[in-house]
Design a protein that fits this description.
Blueprint (H helix, E strand, L loop, with lengths): L1 H39 L2 H26 L4 H14 L2 H14 L6 H12 L3 H8 L8 H20 L3 H17 L3 H24 L3 H11 L6 H11 L4 H14 L6 H17 L3 H21 L6 E12 L5 E12 L8 E9 L2 E10 L10 E2 L3 E8 L9 E9 L7 E9 L1
């Protein structure tokens, strides 16, 4: 009897567990189904489904064209792009290759399509081999496109942490853009070159190879004396060569003094002063003592410290226009001088941002010696207006952001002192 009761108890427990597990499984299934249905009904999912339908329709269109004309490279190139968008890499590669094979002399876009496709597939050597087949050295448009390819190739190597190979790609792009007279793209290549040199220098510093880091940074200066590079060199030379440390900090000071930590600048000047004093070079020591005084005056006169200034918003509103989707944000503000000194000159710019639009809505030089912003006082109210199209899109937001930036010297970058948002 007791044995029978135990068996019945065990059966009851097992059945209860089975029912409980089944219930949990059903709940999980129901929740997953509900979540899937909710996602599929969302605008984002519908948009993806619609995009896929459009791409599939376009594929059918170009395949029909190919059935009527199987020798037109452009149709295969389009198909490669479309299959690439769908993530069908095997079909994409097959069509890109057909486009290359059918390209007539002088058609190089197909090579770049296939090369960039291989970059996206992380087949970097294969990508470069394809583009190396483009031999036309005098066509500026072709060389510019080749420069674009080498920027992409350099970025792929950079993302893998192979900074030396990335640098070679960026340098090739630089030379190609230079030949093609593409000044805007040349600036992009130059920035990438500096990033690569900086990354290589950082690898040297991690390995405690100071000389290697310095050599890489100095090598980069043949492209341009970039302030962040000269500043880094000044810091690296601080405990090695005071004269060279001053040389590079001075270059930084002349081009972009706002990036300098003036405690570091003053230390470099003090070290240089002591270096020349200990060497018995009195004129040089006297010169650096004078430079130290000038640096301290510059700091007091032009540098903006945290909490030196503030912004007080007097009023802020959004005005709707009678017709269309245009609106205007109207803001009235005061500048607060929290310092114990009068401000004779200040440069201010106010940036506004909503959705994908960014604009400088106010840019002006304020105050004079005759009419300064007095110590511990506020300016008169200043009103600014920003008109924008309030048309909803994918990046739609519900506010307008304003950023207030100031400097006390024209060639010194501005400092953000305040930001705020207005609800639309």
């Amino acid at each position: 009897m007791i044995k029978k009761s135990i068996n019945e108890y065990l059966i009851t427990v097992i059945v209860t567990l089975i029912v409980a597990l089944a219930s949990v499984g059903w709940c999980v299934f129901s929740l997953e189904k509900a979540a899937r249905e909710h996602y599929l009904s969302s605008p984002e999912a519908r948009e993806k489904v619609d995009e896929r339908k459009i791409i599939i329709g376009l594929i059918a269109k170009y395949e029909r064209r190919i059935r009527h004309n199987a020798t037109n490279y452009a149709n295969f190139s389009k198909l490669g792009n479309l299959y690439d968008l769908l993530g069908e890499t095997a079909e994409a590669e097959k069509n890109y290759k057909k486009a290359v094979a059918l390209s007539t002399y002088g058609i190089f876009g197909t090579f770049f399509d296939l090369g960039n496709f291989y970059i996206r597939q992380d087949q970097l050597i294969k990508a470069e081999n394809i583009v190396n087949q483009v031999r036309n050295k005098r066509n500026k448009a072709v060389q510019s496109a080749k420069g674009d390819f080498y920027i992409n190739l350099g970025d792929a190597y950079y993302d893998e942490g192979d900074y030396n190979t990335a640098l070679k790609g960026y340098q090739k792009a630089y030379e190609l853009y230079k030949f093609a007279n593409k000044s805007d793209k040349l600036r992009i290549a130059t920035a990438r070159i500096f990033d690569a040199y900086d990354a290589i220098a950082n690898e040297h510093l991690k390995g405690k190879r100071l000389v290697g880091a310095i050599q890489e940074l100095e090598e980069s200066l043949k492209y341009s004396e970039e302030p962040f590079i000269t500043y880094k060199l000044a810091i690296l030379y601080m405990d090695v060569d005071p004269a060279l440390a001053y040389k590079y900090i001075r270059k930084t000071y002349e081009s972009d003094p706002a990036i300098i930590n003036f405690d570091i600048y003053e230390k470099i000047l003090v070290d240089a002063y002591r270096y020349y004093e200990n060497a018995g070079m009195a004129p040089e020591a006297s010169l650096f003592k004078h430079k130290l005084k000038l640096a301290k005056k510059f700091r007091e006169k032009y540098l903006i410290m945290p909490d030196d200034f503030g912004i007080e918003i007097v009023s802020a509103r959004i005005k709707k226009h009678l017709f269309g989707d245009k609106k205007t944000a109207i803001v009235k503000f005061k500048i607060k001088n929290n310092t114990a000194h009068n401000v004779n000159l200040m440069y201010i710019d106010v940036n506004a941002e909503t959705n994908n639009d960014k604009s400088v809505v106010y840019k002006k030089a304020l105050f004079t010696r005759k009419k300064p912003l007095s110590a511990k006082s506020d300016s008169k109210p200043i009103e600014i207006k920003y008109s924008f199209n309030d048309i909803p899109n994918i990046d739609y937001t519900n506010d307008v952001k304003f950023s207030f930036n100031i400097t006390k010297k024209k060639n010194v970058r501005t400092v953000n002192i305040y930001s705020f948002k207005i609800e639309k």
